[in-house]
Design goal:
It is built from ten helices and eleven strands. By secondary structure, the protein is of the alpha/beta class. The protein has two domains: about 120 residues, Oxidized Rhodanese, domain 1; about 110 residues, Oxidized Rhodanese, domain 1 (3-Layer(aba) Sandwich), CATH 3.40.250.10. The longest helix is centred in the middle third of the chain and has 12 residues.
Length: about 280
């Protein structure tokens, strides 16, 4: 099997297609269903991103039941020794969340297709159309890694400590409290706001911004390799992208899966409003 990097460029993937079954590589597309049917990467399978979410309130961003994950991954033919190439059509939110899920399960063989299906199409790379029937498997999901996640209680314990940071991936209006999606609007005290879509280059098919420049920008916000970093949005979808960026940059980043849907609906959690962290 080819040694695939965490951040995989579309042209580099196209040059290796098609993969043989013995390669044990699975390209998983989480684009909208209609987008997949119209155009998809040859050999890819479609996964409904909703299957990697928890159903119900107050925290739908948390990890779903293991039975749900086992069924979802069995349906697309995942095995413990499969290398997964994650793609979507929005610049990495759903793909990044899938990588976080894989991390929770201890499945460390994965890559992110930089820019996903958007970059693939922009670069004019080969596509197929129509539905795909994957070969199924008997995948048994097990929660073996809690080190990729921080809970509400853990964040409350860490607030105010110099070696801890919170990256809020929501919009500026959500951060300040001008727009409230939960019972309370605002942000976690000390959190810094850098909206997820600002980290994508629209001129390059939603690829991640130039990495060293991105690293410098984040460091200026207090998000660097000297800290443990919690990242969140409303339901840990948008922060799938910021989690992914942190992984690529080698930061000690962890997903707060409860996100603002949990924090903002809990009357006991501290909340700040306005521009300042």
């Amino acid at each position: 099997m080819a040694d695939l990097p965490l951040l995989l460029e579309p042209a580099a993937l196209a040059a290796q297609l098609p993969f043989a079954a013995a390669d044990k590589i699975l390209i998983v597309e989480q684009a909208k269903a209609e987008a997949f049917l119209e155009n998809h990467i040859p050999g890819s399978v479609w996964l409904d991103f909703k299957k990697l979410q928890c159903v119900g309130q107050p925290a739908p961003g948390k990890l779903p039941p293991l039975e749900q994950l086992s069924a979802a991954f069995s349906d697309i033919g995942l095995t413990p020794d499969t290398h997964v190439i994650c793609s979507d059509d929005e610049g990495g939110g759903w793909a990044g969340r899938m990588i976080w899920v894989l991390d929770c399960l201890g499945h460390s063989k994965y890559s992110y297709l930089n820019g996903g299906l958007v970059a693939w199409l922009q670069e004019g790379l080969p596509t197929e159309s129509g539905a795909v029937q994957p070969l199924t498997s008997q995948y048994q999901a097990q929660l073996v890694n809690s080190d990729c996640t921080l809970t509400k209680e853990q964040i409350l314990q860490r607030l105010g400590q110099s070696d801890f940071a919170v990256w809020d991936a929501r919009s500026h209006a959500e951060y300040t409290g001008e727009k409230a999606v939960s019972q309370r609007g605002g942000h976690i005290p000390g959190a810094v706001n850098y909206e997820w879509t600002l980290g994508m280059d629209k001129a390059r098919g939603l690829k991640i911004n130039e990495l060293e420049g991105f690293r410098t920008l984040l460091s200026g916000l207090g998000i660097d390799d000297s800290k443990e970093i919690a990242t969140h949005c409303q339901t840990h979808h948008r922060s799938g992208f910021t989690y992914l960026v942190g992984k690529i940059l080698g930061l000690n980043i962890k997903g707060y899966a409860g996100s603002w849907s949990e924090w903002g609906n809990d009357p006991a959690t501290p909340v700040n409003t306005g521009e300042q962290p």
